[in-house]
Structures are given as C-alpha cells and as structure tokens.
Amino acid sequence: MKSFLGALLGLWIVCGFGHADEITPLGHGLNLGNFLEAPHEGAWSDGRLLKESDFSTIQAAGFTVVRVPIRWAAHVGPGPDFTIDPTFLSRVDWVVAQAEKNHLQAILDYHNDDELMKHPDANGNRFVAIWKQIAGHYQTAPDSIFFELLNEPYGKLDAARWNALLARALAVVRETNPTRTVVVGPVQWNGIGSLKNLVLPENDRHLVVTFHYYSPMQFTHQGASWIEGSTPWLGTTWEATDKEKQAVLKDFAQADAWGKAHDRPLYMGEFGSFEKGDMASRARWTAFVARTAESSGFAWTYWEFCSGFGAYDPVINQWRLPLLQALLPKS
User: 47: how many CB neighbours lie within 10 A of its CB?
Assistant: First the structure.
C-alpha cells in the first residue's frame, strides 16, 4: 500500500511532521456509512448490504481508502470478557478481505457506543476489552489496516475521561500491534476546536489525529431528521463566496497550526452534505473543503458512500457525478 500512497507521505513531511516516516500514509477515500454501525446491517440502508462489487467500484473511481464505521458494542457478550460475536467478526473479516483484494486501505472505526458516552466510567472496561480482542484478532493484518479508537467522543465522555481511556485502550492495542497506525480524535464530536484538549502519549509516533468537518451545519445538515430544528434550514445554499471560503480556511488553519505544534499528521475522517441540499451547492462545498484539506496535507474520507450523504446512487448503481468530480476532479 505504501507504494501508491507515498505522495501523501511527502505532503506530511513538507508540512513539518518529522515523524511521518513512522506512519503508513493515508490517501483519499469514502466512509462505508450506514452499514456495520447500524443496529444491524441493512437497518439504515433499506435492507441493502455491503457487496463485493462496492469495493471494486470505489477503487476503480480512484479512491484509495475506506473507513468502516462499526458498532462493535452491539455485538459482544456479557462481562467481564465481552466476547465479540464470531459471526459479526467474520463479517468484518470479509470487509477487510475485500479492501485488501481491491488495494484499499481500511480504517476499522469503533462507532456508535451510546452507553460509553452516557456512562463512561461504567463502560470503560468493556471498551478496553473489546479493543484487546480487535487488536489481537488483526495483529497479523497488513499495515494497510488501521484502527480508529472511537468515533466522535461526546456527552459525559469529556476530555479528561477520554484522554485517560484512550491511553488505556491504546496500551492494550500496543501489546499486539506495536507499530500499527492508530487514529485518534478529540471530544465534542471530533471537533477542530477540541484538538487543544487532546492528550496523546508523546512516545507513540504511530498515531494519526482525526477531525470531522460539517460547517456550516445549517447547510450540510439541512432537513436531517436526526437534527432537531433542521427543517427551517431547508433551502440553504453554499455559493463559495469569499466570506464562506474564509470561514473554512480559518477552521483549517486552526487544525493545521495544532498539527504542526504537536508534530502530528491530521486526517479529516468525515465531511459531507446531506441530500436535502441542492446538488450545485453540495458540489461546490465538497470541492472546496477537499482541496483545502489537501493543500494542508490532510488525508480525508468523505461521508459517505451510498446513503443520505452518498456520492454513489445505490438505486441506479451510478456515481453522482457532481460529487464524485468534486472529490476526485480527475475521475
């Protein structure tokens, strides 16, 4: 994988990340959202499951990475072992195999653990036990398989609790995967403004720091049923005015400054706009955010493949070309 992703490694070195040679570089990809992080696969995708052809379709379009959101916590037995259901683990193995077959990096992302966010002290041991199993299971996987410790910490999992818990989880991962690249993000839904509160083990240089970007929410989440008060946002456009672009540039400059100050490579793990927005605005916003990230040396994975934010239409089995070309102009 390092051979065809080496260009981004150069970007990380140019941007001043002196330890970039210790990290398998990331490229540009898609989130396989609304599949394995749903209550059960198909629940959020009208019964559609991930297919073998999805991976070849993604690779053929020019993407190099898939981020795989996974609701691990919904597929474990009781404590103290919290054993992962072998059938579900086999399904994740299939996803990993498809990614490898199609020369795609795969980020195994721990997603949608609401109980951990609500009651972090009571569920920390479960979280660590699950990661011990994941790490042991994939310890011989190639470097192209990344681990992401936790998607969007929020709620009662505040910065102090999260910094302590990530250190525990990372320690058990390192027992079996001492050099695997691990993705870690800050609290407040992986917000850029919370990077300042993230504490990482200084001697672990096999880490990539992630942030998510959906600003302005009134545009990217207009009409989203899970966001209270989003209906009045319907009709919001993004015209790429100087003011709109400056807001994005300011946010990314803040992230870039943090990354350089802490000598950590950054990765935009999620960004996207919901289908209720007009396509022209969605394409303009997507292209500007992606190019701005690239100019800062940030890898990215768009949210997501083929659901409400999707770049691909699963009904007619075709790419939504304005979004695809916004993401990959040469596609």
Answer: 8
pLDDT for the residue 12: 39
- Give the pLDDT confidence score for residue 291 in this predicted structure: 98
What span, in angstroms and rounded, lies between the C-alpha atoms of 102 and 106? 11
- In sequence order, what are the beta bridge partners of 211? 268
Q: Do 2 and 10 contact (CB within 8 A), yes or no?
A: no
Q: How long, in residues, is the chain? A: 331
The pLDDT, as a whole number, for residue 22 is: 67
Orientation of helix 120-137 relative to helix 159-176, angle to 10°: 20
- Does an H or E element contain 126, and which? helix 120-137
Best CATH choice for the domain 6-327 from the list 3.40.190.80, 3.30.70.260, 3.90.1150.10, 3.20.20.80 = 3.20.20.80
CB 215 within 8 A of CB 231: no
Residues 6 or more apart whose CB falls under 8 angstroms from that of 170 comprise 149, 182, 184, 201, 204
Positions of E strands within 15-130: 28-31, 65-70, 105-110
pLDDT along the chain (331 residues), means of 10: 35 37 83 97 96 98 98 97 98 98 98 98 98 98 98 98 98 98 98 98 96 98 96 98 98 98 97 98 98 97 97 97 96 73
| C-alpha–C-alpha distance, residues 297 and 16, integer Å | 10
Name the token pair of 49.
């499951």
330 vs 21: CA distance, rounded Å: 28
Give the span between the Cα atoms of 36 and 88, in whole angstroms: 9
Residue spans per domain, the chain: 6-327
Q: Residue 330 has what pLDDT?
A: 86
